[in-house]
Amino acid sequence: MGKLQEFEITFDKNKVVYSPGESISGTVTIKVGQLLQCKAIKVNCNGFCGITSKVNDTAWTVEEQYFNSTISVADKGTLKQGEHTFPFKFLIPDSAPTSFKGNYGRIVYRVRAFIDTPRFAKDYNTEKAFYLLSLLNLNEVPDIWEACSSAVTQQFTYMLVKTGTVVLKAQTDLKGYTPGQVIQVLANIHNQSGKTTGNMAASLMQRVTYETKRPTHDVRTMVEVEGGVVKAGRELEWKEQIIVPALPQSSLAGCELIKIEYYVKVCLKSPDVMLMLPIHVGNVSLDRKLHPSKKAAPPSSAAAEDTQASASTPNTSTATTPTLPSRPAPKPAPRPTPRSRMASHNPPSAPPAEYNQGAEGGTPMNDGFPNKRQSQLVSPNAFSYAPGLFFSQNQQHNGPGTVPSGATAPYPPENGASSMPTSLILPPDYVTSAYPQEAPPSYNESFNT
């Protein structure tokens, strides 16, 4: 090597992978066997993206610079015989994209050192690459928790004769994965033709787009699994798993020349039918604690939904009411107001309660069947809990009972009562009575008054 015996770059702690915003430091080591005159010793750190039109070519047709910094570690002078070390330090910008190496382009980061010698003397240089990793957190990708699904219908042609159609539906369990995770693929194939299909296949595809005057698309199959066939007139459900290998992340944020996409391709060998399910490959996996469905709901939300469903959705099926134990005749109650007399022409279907629904008491009817009456199955303990009922604070009860969905509750069973059908007809207004301490009037008494 002549005068220069050693010329190399060393990173502190032998670190080679860095993050945007981090500083990179190290030393340049120069060992000479005899005196070496130099004008300057410089160290450069740069990052760029280069695109070419030929595979694995470094004659870039398009370039994109991210940063380029140079410092001088020694001025004009003479290097004496022996070993010399020069420290350096650079700051990596926050906007620098992740390192990448493809068939038609690269994102490269490197540190280079130069020894400028006097005129007619040989210059020396060396370089060392490092890698930048900008993490892609899948939890920050919109709609990442939703299943990705698609469907396609294809004509089945055999010997130039159309024999029917094939319907292919497929979905993945999520939209984002990290290397090492498993993609759950579910496919449904309905062969509506008279011929047996070819084998099913599911593949994890990578498409890299290099932006030039005429964009270059490099599509490669990373993983492929194959299934069986679907016989004529049959419908088959196919479940398969794909393990994500070590792959570059989907997003190269900060790079305008290279775009990386991943998708799961589900297809049939015959007929030629396929569909694409786009997914994301990241570095930070999904956190189940951040799943939208896992967020805590208010304690009363489930009960409120059940109450609303029971109060607003009438049960169109007719059921036989069970025979309840007989009870003594009810005590007389105050005469209903004229407003409630109009409603008392029909037997009441629910115990008296204060209704705050804006209508004249009772449970709102289904708009599609405004006049439809229905009998409902009622539990003997239904009065202890009924949707739409509100009791005073001093009312004592024995705990919730079982109420069929959409059912209203009869009068409270005391010592027995005859079975009676209930409906969703508006009940009389018993707000002025002392109920539930006093029982409401019976059916006959309502008409006699």
UniProtKB/TrEMBL annotation:
Q: Which PANTHER family match?
A: ARRESTIN DOMAIN CONTAINING PROTEIN (PTHR11188), ARRESTIN DOMAIN-CONTAINING PROTEIN 1 (PTHR11188:SF176)
Q: Where is the composition biased (Low complexity)?
A: 295-324
Q: Where is the Arrestin C-terminal-like domain?
A: 162-286
Entry similarity comment: Belongs to the arrestin family.
Residue spans with biased composition (Pro residues)? 325-337
Checking InterPro entries in the record gives: Arrestin-like_C (IPR014752), Arrestin-like_N (IPR011021), Arrestin_C-like (IPR011022), Arrestin_domain-protein (IPR050357), Ig_E-set (IPR014756)
Any one Gene Ontology BP term: nervous system development
Spell out the molecular function terms from Gene Ontology: ubiquitin protein ligase binding; ubiquitin-like ligase-substrate adaptor activity
Which region ranges are annotated with the description Disordered?
A: 289-375, 391-449
Q: Gene3D superfamilies annotated for this entry? A: 2.60.40.640
Can you say what this protein is called?
Arrestin domain-containing protein 1a
**Organism from which the protein derives:** Cottoperca gobio
Any one cellular-component term (Gene Ontology): cytoplasm
Q: Name one Pfam family in it.
A: Arrestin_N
